[in-house]
Design a protein that fits this description.
This protein has helices at about 10-25, 25-35, 80-100, 120-135, 150-165, 185-205, 220-235, 260-265, 275-280, 335-345, 350-355, 355-370, 375-400, 405-425, and strands spanning about 40-45, 55-65, 70-75, 105-110, 140-145, 215-220, 235-245, 250-255, 285-290, 300-305, 325, 345-350. A 7-stranded mixed sheet has the order 9-8-7-6-10-11-12. With about 425 residues, it is an alpha/beta fold. It has 2 domains: about 35-170 and about 400-428, Rossmann fold (3-Layer(aba) Sandwich); about 190-350, Rossmann fold, CATH 3.40.50.720. The two termini are about 35 Å apart. Bound molecules: glutamic acid.
Length: about 425
């Protein structure tokens, strides 16, 4: 979350300010777009199983909804901060704009560790979140989704509380719901697959065969798992995966020089999502420190965990072989590292483009809910690949035409679209 040295909101603002300056955006628009338009800070009292009451601090921020209802996940994390949620709400605006879906940016969070809460306590927390925010949420207002440590069950509890209060059925008020309960096929895989659809197209553009590439992943949650498995299906070799170990309270890197078997690693995950280190070692995986994923001799690095992982301090340990950094997480690279990445001619696939597959599929989920007609998985994934590839091509072509770093090209497209919507509405 917001580490002492790096504040994600300051990072998000620094990225925006740089591009706003280049674009010559007028001051009113800059002021509007460099912070959330609305912030709700609230508390949720929850009756715990032991009869006591605990009060949780929660947030829901709307960065901008000029292009459509605010959209973005709700995170459960013990170190959640208002500034992290601010940054993430801002990145959601750019994410929806760069893939050109008619949604704005929002984000929510609760300071809590779901590992220490029973399912009944988590349900009461979700219902409390929906009760406190009832008037602020809705299919045409602000539409949450799963994020770090939240899942389809949490979304369904929030929906059920919302519908109980309103007395109707509004499946489009939240996405990432379980399939059969208004969820879309492909939503679970969408963020990870989206990362690889873009990587695949980049490799095509630069004339590299995925089957001749190697990669190292940070994280083995939902996004990394599906990204790594699709990358392996394309013939790419995953040399290393780093994963948080909940019991030890630290991360480890699992390495197999001949290539990790992703399905095998998935089968070694415990109930916290940590890879069992003894079993992995028994299967021939080398156990290395958590940060060893970064220093592997691979072609592609995929940070798919948290913010602020690639900094100037760790940059020198990145192998000279690395050609691509594929940002599957939100904000994994600090702005002061972008210059170093460019100097080394590493191609960067920026986070809000690279990981937009999740929200794109959330949009498809809303569309299907509105029609009350659900597509099969093939149709969802074809539409997802089309949307992601189209967005990538536009960013890639602009970066070539104007010799721009890909992050700046993605920002240019997204900021122009949002600024235009704000102007057309007459807000500035
Ligand atoms: N939490 C995901 C993200 O950061 C998905 C958001 C959504 O589906 O609304 O993109």
């Amino acid at each position: 979350m917001a580490t002492e040295a790096y504040n994600p909101f300051e990072n998000a603002q620094a990225q925006f300010d740089g591009v706003a300056e280049t674009l010559g955006l007028e001051s009113g628009i800059r002021e509007l777009l460099r912070r959330p338009m609305k912030e709700i800070h609230f508390t949720i009292p929850v009756k715990m199983d032991d009869g006591t009451t605990k009060v949780f601090q929660a947030f829901r921020f709307k960065h901008n909804d000029a292009r459509g209802p605010a959209k973005g996940g709700i995170r459960f994390h013990p170190h959640e901060t208002a500034d992290t949620v601010r940054a993430l709400s801002m990145w959601m605006t750019w994410k929806c704009a760069v893939v050109d879906i008619p949604l704005g940016g929002g984000k929510g969070g609760v300071i809590c560790d779901p590992h220490n809460l029973s399912l009944a306590e988590q349900e009461r927390l979700c219902r409390g979140y929906a009760r406190q925010l009832y008037h602020q949420l809705g299919p045409n207002l602000d539409v949450p989704a799963p994020d770090v440590m939240t899942n389809g069950q949490h979304m369904l509890w929030i929906l059920d509380e919302y519908e109980t209060i309103s007395g109707g059925r509004f499946p489009g008020m939240i996405t990432g719901k379980p399939v059969g309960m208004g969820g879309s096929l492909g939503r679970t895989e969408a963020t990870g697959y989206g990362v690889i659809y873009i990587l695949k197209d980049l490799l095509r553009q630069i004339g590299m065969d995925p089957a001749n590439t190697t990669a190292s992943f940070q994280g083995f949650g939902n996004v990394a798992e599906y990204a790594a498995s699709m990358y392996s299906e394309l013939g790419g070799k995953v040399i290393a995966v780093s994963c948080w170990n909940q019991k030890d309270g630290k991360a480890y890197t699992f390495k197999k020089a001949g290539g990790c078997n992703i399905a095998e690693l998935v089968s070694l995950k415990d109930s916290f999502g940590s890879i069992d280190k003894d079993k992995a070692q028994g299967l021939g995986y080398e156990l290395l420190p958590g940060d060893a994923w970064l220093s592997q001799d691979v072609d592609i690095l995929v940070p798919a965990a948290l913010e602020n992982q690639i900094t100037p301090a760790v940059f020198p340990s990145i192998s000279k072989q690395v050609k691509i950094i594929c940002e599957a997480a939100n904000g994994p690279t600090t702005p002061d590292c972008d210059k170093l990445i460019q100097e080394r001619n590493i191609i960067l696939l920026p986070d809000f483009l690279c990981n937009a597959g999740g929200v794109t599929c959330s949009y498809f989920e809303q569309v299907q809910c509105n029609m009350n007609y659900f597509w099969d998985k093939k149709e969802v994934l074809e539409k997802l690949e089309y949307t992601m590839t189209k967005a990538f091509r536009a960013v890639y072509e602009l970066s070539k035409e104007q010799n721009l770093y890909m992050r700046d090209a993605a920002y240019t497209i997204a900021i122009k679209r949002v600024a235009n919507a704000v102007k057309l509405r007459g807000w500035v």
